[in-house]
Amino acid sequence: MRAALLLCFALLPAVACAQEDGDWIAYRDAYRQMIWFEKYGKPKQFLQNHFRLRPRDASVNMEGLRLTLNGKATQVSLALDALGRAVLPLSKAAYDDNAELRINRKPGQIKAGPWVSIVTRPDGVYPATDLRTACEQLLAYLRYSGEAGGKQCIGVQFIYMKSDTAQVRFHAKEGAATTLAAKEGPAFAGDAAQGFRVYVYRFAAWPEAGQIITGSTPLAIGALLE
What we know:
2 domains, DUF3108 domain-containing protein, five-stranded antiparallel β-sheet, 226 residues, signal, disordered N terminus, alpha+beta, four-stranded antiparallel β-sheet
């Protein structure tokens, strides 16, 4: 068993490893991945970083999914949003304690790791220039962390639960408003889970001057990279 765990740490840092009562992740490995964002020195005021759990395929049931931080003297349940995202505490005590992040799912069912997205606004008003800047900031960070090589920002998408009928509109500088079309699909590119309501805002399809106004706060805003 000890040899298997050592092999897991060597080959799959910050990825769930097997445990009898579910999967677990070494907190130190998750901490090292999350701290990249904290140490990133370029502009990131439009970005946020979460620790995210997501199913490896569509057959995995996410209902009742739980993430707990467990140490010798600590057991904390970390709240997950509808997209499987949690705010991971960056705790020196948990790091020194060699704590574990435990997932109540069978080994291999869940992917886990940092997830950067665009910050939502409580007033629901997003200047077009800010969205373009946010997309570029996210792309720059992904390149810094070794991802998204060769891709470009082409837009953003506003993600809602399927049952949420809030509208997303583009308001041109002169005042004309147009409702963006909604589609059903995954929250983010590459996700196995479907069934979210997604509004896609492609930069090339709209004037540079204007703003997006949302009827309610989206679950998340993701960048469209191609």
